[in-house]
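Sequence in, structure out. Go.
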Amino acid sequence: MGAVNGDNSVIIPLRMQENGIVENKRNQSMSNQVANALFEAINDEYKARATYQYVIDTFGSIRPFINIVEAESRHIQALLPLFQKYGVPVPPDTWAQHMSQPESIMDACRAGVEAEIENTEMYDRLLKETQGYPDIQRVMRNLQRASAENHLPAFQRCLARFSRQHGWSGERRSGMRRQGGCGGRRYRGGRCR
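Output:
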């Protein structure tokens, strides 16, 4: 199992060779950085699933949470074969024990926007760390695309819908729209990359 550092990075107990290459139980070699990238990716997907499930448990079956919680489970399933292929132990999902209750559905939507932005940024970084592993990169790109093109816009619509219903000030609403969850970047079709 992996241990978590104070900075939430994961350390995995695989045998490190002098050249910085990790030797795993299947005798395939990979850098510790790549193994840690797998751990970070699955833990982020665990966290997202637990967060969205907690919102459903707290506020009921509301969209987009009911759809996206299922998608997060599929994301986890997409990562698992990589752990098996490279002989990396799968960390347990303990995120349900660490959830804090959002004050409102609007706060939950806002947290969803922030989480999906962070997820996209995380995958940008992890893609750099996993160069030379096209199978890992293919899965990570697909997960990043789903977050940026499907989940993020769904949570942005959720935030806009509940903002209108609860009279959120136009200034805050337009400020949120200006950043757009893409850090001001817009791409073809008006979607984040």
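Check: The CA atoms of residues 149 and 191 lie 6 Å apart. The longest strand covers residues 21-23.
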